[in-house]
Amino acid sequence: MSTARMTVDLDALVSNWRSLDSASSDTTETGAVVKANGYGLGVQPVVRALAKAGVKRFFVAAAEEGAAVRETLGPNVEINVFSGHMRGDTDMIGDLNLIPMINSTDQLLRHVEALPGHGFGIQLDTGMNRLGLEPEEWLSIRDFALDLDPTLIMSHLACADEPDHPMNLHQLALFTDLTEGVGVPRSLAATGGILLGPEFHFDVTRPGVGLYGGLPFAEASPVVRLDLPVIQVREIAAGETVGYGNTWTADEPAVIATVAAGYADGIHRIMGPKTVLFSGDTPCPVRGRISMDMIGVEITHLDEVPQGLTILGPQQGVDVLADNAGTIGYEILTSLGGRTARRYKGG
Q: Cis omega (within 30 of 0) on the bond before 100?
């Protein structure tokens, strides 16, 4: 069976980074979040393109992800690990010069005892209740931690994709209060925080999903295109059904193309009833349920049978698919399957 083909536009990725970088002043450094295999697009070509564009500070979720970035880019970039210094990560952190974002007193002690003098950052919890030192815990060890010269102090906004949400100003005020006068670079804003305005930018921003073409960066250039090959075409009569469960019945004679992709490739089953694919600019609706490896698509209205149909691209962005599936663009990007053939252009 032929497989879906993903095309990643590295020039668009770099353009999105430059746009988000230009939203901050020259005194603010713009990093890049490349966790989850570069949001599903392939971390090695992604970080190469971003490093060439000028990114010197990268953020990943786990030490193993940091190893992939270090292997790709070598020693001259900073790699920050959101999960901090976990048990079993000491050798990797030390050998690869990763910077753990410390999330607890226990992590700080583990780091200092295992790797004295090795760089680290600090993550504060300002209301998301996910990772980071809680305010009281931070205040109890603040002087001790600052004496060890952390490289960065950061927190993460819970509601940055909702500009008017009161949580944004609450977290901004708390983060400012907890870090006033620390003499250490500070970071609060990911993509949504950058768009909230300069008071959220501090010394380092760390755009993520906006680099890859997702909301809340509505002006982002599309980065990903996903084309699905047509592997069979059949004519069906009025009254015949398509797919598992007979969920779609033809009202009149129709032409159905079967394309090679499905929920095993990250095209979620739930999105079927609302989703169309495209032949050029012509929409072609999904018919019946999305199955593991195949999708039925109606092409009755096309003048000729296409070799493939586009589900993700300039005609339809990642957040449209996300809405169809009742989820967010992040999940669509990071779910795109491992058997999808990737092609990179630009960069």
A: no
Q: How confident is the model at residue 338 (pLDDT cuts 50, 70, 90)?
A: confident
Residues recognised as catalytic? 35, 244
Q: Please classify residue 281 by burial: count the beta carbons closer than 10 Å to its beta carbon, then call 0-12 exposed, 13-18 middle and 19+ buried.
A: exposed
Whether the predicted pLDDT of 1 surpasses 70? no
> Is the pTM of the predicted complex or chain greater than 0.85?
yes
Residue that the structure tokens 């901090």 belong to: 84
Query: In the numeric block, which tokens belong to residue 323?
Result: 């809405």
| Contact in structure between 298 and 284 (CB atoms under 8 Å) | yes
Task: Indicate if the alpha-carbon torsion angle 15, 26, 171, 60 is positive or negative.
Answer: positive
User: Taking residues 199-204, what's their average pLDDT?
Assistant: 98
Q: What is the DSSP string of 142-173?
A: HHHHHHT--S-EE---SSTTSTT-HHHHHHHH
The answer to whether 265 touches 4, Cβ cutoff 8 Å, is yes
CA gap 222, 278 in Å, rounded: 16
Tell me the C-alpha distance between 273 and 270, whole Å. 7
Nearest partner of 289 among 301, 276, 271, judged by Cα: 271
Give pLDDT tens digits for 87-116.
Answer: 999 999 999 999 999 999 999 999 999 999
